[in-house]
Amino acid sequence: MPFILAQTSTTPPPPSGIWYPTILGILVVAAAVGLFCGSVYLLLGTNLGARLGFLIAFTALAGFMVLLTTMWVFTASPLNTLKGTTPAWSVKKVVHTLDDTSLPPEIQHIKKDGTKVPTQPAQVLKAAADARLVIAAPVPNIPLAPNANQFAQFSAATDYTETNYYEVGGSTPMLLSWQASHSKLYAVVEYCAVVPVNQPFGLPPPTPVCDTSSPKNGFVIMEYNYGSLRFPPFVALVCSSILFVLGLLALHWREKDERAAEKAKQQAAGAIGPAGRAEERVPEPVG
Predict the structure, then answer these.
(1) Which of 9, 27, 66, 169 has its CA 20 to 30 A from that of 55?
(2) Last residue of a domain, one of 228, 257, 277
């Protein structure tokens, strides 16, 4: 039975230009605003008038945005909502010794003052270190980042092994706290090149043995980026709340003006006296 080789096809990225995404994006936003907001304003404007209909539609939209942005802030945001950067470990430097004077004092004494990371949480540090230590190969239609191989030293993740994981610093996260309210959290991953072994095919891989004389041995210095995942929704919530309050005030001021105008009209017609009470009219004698 002949084997059929499946050809893997890579989907090229969509063409970019003045039409996509600039003009198409503007048209999509304009159509969405026209259909969602324009239809409501059209119904209100034909029944209440252009100005009052606009005030009601504007205030209702701002109130809807208050509810929506509140959900973005206090619940797990879906994929396509307004959000900031996600928390992650970022590699700052790769050194061969912790005695480097350019390192912060917390990192230089991390073996003494820091804590060892357990095996399960250390997998996150290992993944962040592997992404920067292994040389990234170019992929068709996907250009490499400018600093993708800045700290890369090995051709594969099996050419080295991580021996120790340390952490120092950090603070307890709060609900609506940003990067400025946290103390810096550092992590150090100690790694070493392994002694190459010619393992026969079919046997399990051997236990990696560190090559203590390798010049590639060193430490990966990482800093935790707490991110700003909920900061943009919080800013949107504040702006929506301000617009909602302004809309309510505009409706209140309009109602006060209409009442004052109606009272002045009645006073001019003689229906209400100077004290604000209806005047008693004496009936004229008949005959």
Answers:
(1) 27
(2) 228
